[in-house]
Fold:
Amino acid sequence: MSLRAAAPVATVVEPLFAQEAGSSHASFAPPPRRVDPAPATLRGMDTTTTLTVPCPHCAAGNRVPAARLADAPKCGRCHQPLFTGAPLALDAAGFERHARSGLPLLVDFWAAWCGPCQQMAPHFGAAAALLEPLVRLGKVDTEAEPALSGRFGIRSIPTLVLVRDGREIARQAGAMGRDQIVQWARGQLAS
Ligand SMILES: [Zn+2]
Structure:
């Protein structure tokens, strides 16, 4: 069952950055804005903690000390980087793995038919390079994973949901630019 069929009230949210630019024609560039430097660790994260970070390539759980997250850790099984600077496409199993790794998981609920989702995709991708390794970014195709979007009560797309320790801690509907995504996520995790 598709999201459209399941939720006929689903709406597509216009990009915030187009409104901010004060222009009616489509803009893919957010207004220039300074991005705060990445924090070394997350608030509430003990640097002596060891996380179990799932490999994006082979799914193996890798024990990584929080203090070593920024040292380009590689998977002990397949030897590929644990962080690639890009969002991961998540199915239900992948979602469960990454939602409980100890790292916050920022999920973009999207669909191929959604224009604003397509507009936001490169911004979300670029945000991954800035937010990793303190935040894992993933994408859930609401058409392919209706159970996940149903579980989170997704009514409009794109919607970003920030998950920590398996629980939602914040959400934001509507397309955003790269810097907005980064600042929003960091703000939620700092508060
Ligand atoms: Zn691996």
About this structure: The first strand starts at residue 11 and ends at 12. The domain at 3-23+84-190 is CATH 3.40.30.10 (Glutaredoxin). The chain has six helices and nine strands. The chain has a mean pLDDT of 85.
